[in-house]
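FAQ: What does the model actually see?

It sees only this:
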Amino acid sequence: MTTPLYHWGTGRRKSAIARVRLRPNGSGKITINKRAFEDYFVRDLDKVQVVAPFKLNGANTLFDVFVNVTGGGMAGQAGAVRLGIARALCAADKERFYPGLKEAGFLTRDARIVERKKPGKKGARASFQFSKR
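And it is asked to produce this:
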């Protein structure tokens, strides 16, 4: 049986959506929206979050990563990429990667999104100042 050309994973966080492709037998290069990983994410916290699934399993140099990410801000996009990478790793080799990723919580989708604005209010919950007279 031949190995597939790519392993796919989709990640979502807040309003960001990341489509992740892992190419086996790679050099460990990460490309996000056709830019280098270090150039795309500026904050160190976001960079650490993106490579966390690889660090956990020691799979840094096994795959080349190609990501298309849209929507949201940088923090949401980093979370979406992390989930997409974790799901793609499970698609590549479930027996090897799944237990560690599941225990670390990398396969859980963070469902928190912005609450909608309510009518007659300033925002989702904040009201206008009340005046009795």
